[in-house]
Amino acid sequence: MSTSRWQLQIQATIWRTLMRMGFGFHSLASPRPPNYTFVKSFMTGADGFSGPKQLLHLYFYLPDDFDAKSRKYPVVVNFHGGGFTIGSATDDCRWAAKVLKETTAIFVSVEYRLAPEYPYPIAIEDGCEAVLHLAANSEEYGIDPQRMALSGFSAGANLVFTVPLMLHNRLGGGFETSDNVSQPPSFKVVSIISFYPLLDFRTSRASKRASSKWPEKSLPSVLTNLFDASYMPDPKNASSPFASPSAASNDMIVQALPSENIGLYCCEWDMLLSEGTSFALRIKELGKLVEYESIPEVVHGFDKAPNPMGVDPKADLFHHKACAILHKALHTKSQNASAVI
Question: Are 70 and 105 spatial neighbours (Cβ–Cβ below 8 Å)?
Answer without folding.
Answer: no
